[in-house]
């Protein structure tokens, strides 16, 4: 049996990329050979640095990496027909349009974190086209759309390329993919969004995998003194997020301003990967920190290794998630399994597992929650950690394999 994984770019090293690697492992364990279809060759060293060698090892078992110039009808058809795949698994179904008439609910799985591409295509979103689909150099004789000229692309789009025509194709192919594959998503929040967007009722909610035991053992249990408390931690807030405007990291800095003004906590650490594409946004965040007088309060840890992330969590007591409407929030689960108190928006998939007393609607409410979160007992941290045990890697692998086995039997 042969499976083809579709993911446009594994190198950002976020939650979706981790899910892809662990899904690869689940399929490898079933005895499949696997290929990867992508728009950018994976950086194995970067993946190992971000996730550790165990999780990243799945990429070394890939038999063949198909690097496409772009997602288009001919490239997708050739990719499928030349390789005779038994199963197509698109773990980036919120972004990547990958569909051909040969695919159906019987041989294609789409893990859609959220139906984001639908609105991106409708609005002709420039970041979606440039960053995710690698379209950055076009000659549009029949369109007044601004020419895309960002850096670092491996695409060489010819003079005959028509963006309006491509956008129409994108819409059709993405819609067909969503309607004609076995759909998985990460939360009830996302399931409702997909159902409302496409009128699809049968969507399997399969929450993403988190390395619960590693975070629990390496952070929570090791931070206690004789199992009776967490005196080794400091009054620090940690934010774990890719440095990307869609993640609303600026909210964390606004929150830090309120905390400092109210003399709450000793500082904030923002840990996240930075793609060169988002460097201007990073400079904007740095300017905010300077303008708000937070240089002594907020610190960035860019492209931190997995071991570095564990050390940051080990010395922190509170986790803050800056984005409202998060689809799930793997970093939230990681922090909770590590015994940190989560402070999250009251809108999004994270509300399905974070206790309501830690939800905020405004940053002022978040500040009030933080004022008492540093004094939470060790027993409460244990309780928080235990509450997310269902999101473990073994549970995810077992449940994903069940989906695959059901398809094979049918």
Briefly say what this structure is.
The protein has 410 residues and is α/β, with parallel strands linked by helices.
Topology:
Layout: E1 2-6, H1 15-29, E2 33-38, H2 44-51, H3 53-56, E3 64-67, H4 73-83, E4 87-90, E5 108-111, H5 116-122, H6 126-132, H7 163-179, E6 182-185, H8 188-198, E7 204-205, H9 212-221, E8 236-240, H10 250-261, E9 267-272, H11 279-291, E10 298-302, H12 306-314, E11 318-320, H13 330-337, E12 341-345, E13 359-360, H14 363-373, H15 378-386, H16 393-409
Parallel strand pairs: 1-2, 1-4, 2-3, 4-5, 5-6, 6-7, 8-9, 8-11, 9-10, 11-12, 12-13
Helix pairs in contact: 1-16, 5-7, 9-12, 9-13, 10-14
Describe this structure in words.
With 410 residues, this protein is of the alpha/beta class. The chain has two domains: 2-209 and 393-409, 3-Layer(aba) Sandwich (Rossmann fold), CATH 3.40.50; 212-390, Rossmann fold, CATH 3.40.50.2000. The chain has 16 helices and 13 strands. It has helices at 15-29, 44-51, 53-56, 73-83, 116-122, 126-132, 163-179, 188-198, 212-221, 250-261, 279-291, 306-314, 330-337, 363-373, 378-386, 393-409; strands at residues 2-6, 33-38, 64-67, 87-90, 108-111, 182-185, 204-205, 236-240, 267-272, 298-302, 318-320, 341-345, 359-360. β11 (318-320), α13 and β12 (341-345) form a beta-alpha-beta unit.
